[in-house]
Amino acid sequence: MGRGHRDKVAVITGAARGLGQAFAKRLAEDGVHIAVADLEAGEETASLVRAAGREALAVRCDVSSPESVAGVAREVERAFGRCDILVNNAGVYPSQPFDELTFADWRRVLSVNLDSMFLMAKAFAPGMKARGWGRVVNLASNTFGTPVPGLVHYIASKGGVIGFTRALASDLGPHGVTVNAIAPSLTRTPGTMVAGHTGPARFAMVASLQAIKRNEEPDDLVGTLSFLTSDDAAFVTGQTLYVDGGWVRV
Predict the structure, then answer these.
(1) Would residue 123 count as lying in a domain?
(2) Beta strands 177-184 and 240-243: pairing type?
(3) pLDDT per residue over 129-146, tens digit each?
């Protein structure tokens, strides 16, 4: 269990399955109560949290909607009275040639991947500031530093996540709140396994470019999240940690 985790409350977006579910399970094992915010039903994840001995709330949420996010904030306040840890994990990962990209396509990706982080932070950061303790972790992507075609809107959104992380850290740091980002490689989750632009060839290509020659699994990322949300990371903020098997070597 990480230092300072016990009986904290985390809100994790996109936690009904995949990477978000792995994050919820790990933080629950660390002693954190979890609110699962997802478009899909989050009861499976909530059950895993309860099995780890922690309290859980599953609430439907469209993270790109101000009204939906406000509803989540009310539910979390009613259930737990606060949010100590915010994990902005929800996102979409479409592939589309730039020539075919419409403004509606662009706006959807920016709205889900970047606007949502602004909305969630606006909802929960004030309470963290008032209590003098908080952790915000945003999911970026190593594609910001890699030559991957067909992802103009996605890479732009994740570049925005990195900028947002750095800027928000400056605003919240004086109040005891840290803000960091995790930038994974292509990770094997139900979402990436069924996406049309990923498959065995893409996963093999990614593994070949990494220093560690295997594909990333959700369990490769949960330890980084555990650290960044603990007291051990109290002096770490504004950073983007590339957890990608050494694809991006900077």
Answers:
(1) yes
(2) parallel
(3) 999 999 999 999 999 988
